[in-house]
Amino acid sequence: MMIPDILKELLKAQEHFDSVLYSNCFSEEALVFDEGKTYRGRGEIKDWNERSNKEYQSKMEIIDISTENEVIILRTNVSGTFDGSPITLKFHFKIENEKISELKITG
Questions:
Q1: HSE-up of 18 (CA within 13 Å, CB side)?
Q2: Could you give the CA distance from residue 106 to residue 91 in angstroms, rounded to a whole number?
Q3: What InterPro entries does the record tag this protein with (predicted)?
Q4: Structural contact between residues 79 and 6, judged by C-beta atoms closer than 8 angstroms
Q5: Where exactly are the structural domains of the chain?
Q6: What is the CA angle 28-54-81, rounded to 5?
Q7: Fold (topology level) of 5-106
Q8: Going by fewer Cβ within 10 Å, which terminus of the chain is more open, N or C?
């Protein structure tokens, strides 16, 4: 499966630690679920990404991509300045109208 353009944009934004570009990949009312917390809308997503970038300096390497019930799943190796680095994480994306409407990050 090919990576959708919006996810390519998201990965590029993360590579450059650009929280504005990162959050613009999401719909206005998108949801992000990470570490037991929920972030709603571009503003909260931008703030969450900005904090994560400052704290962890995460880099992501894609292992594989799959789909399940219209959810795109990126399995990745994530490294950074956090305990246990690197770790394998799955990023579950729902895309609607060429924007990310939901992201759930799991171990």
A1: 12
A2: 7
A3: NTF2-like_dom_sf
A4: no
A5: 5-106
A6: 125
A7: Nuclear Transport Factor 2; Chain: A, (3.10.450)
A8: C
Task: Provide the token pair at 11.
Answer: 């990965």
**Residue that has been written with the tokens 């959810």 in this structure:** 71
Residue with tokens 């992000």: 32
Q: For tokens 């719909």, name the residue.
A: 27
pLDDT digits (tens, 9 = 90+) for 54-82: 999 999 999 999 999 999 999 999 999 99
- Residues 12-40: pLDDT tens digits? 999 999 999 999 999 999 999 999 999 99
- pLDDT band at 94, cuts 50/70/90? very high
Helix (H) or strand (E) holding 52: helix 41-56
DSSP-assigned letters across all residues of 83-96: TT-SEEEEEEEEEE
pTM of the model: 0.93
Residues in the chain: 107
pLDDT at 1: 72
Tokens at 18, concatenated:
């650009």
Whole-angstrom Cα distance, residue 72 to residue 75?
Answer: 10
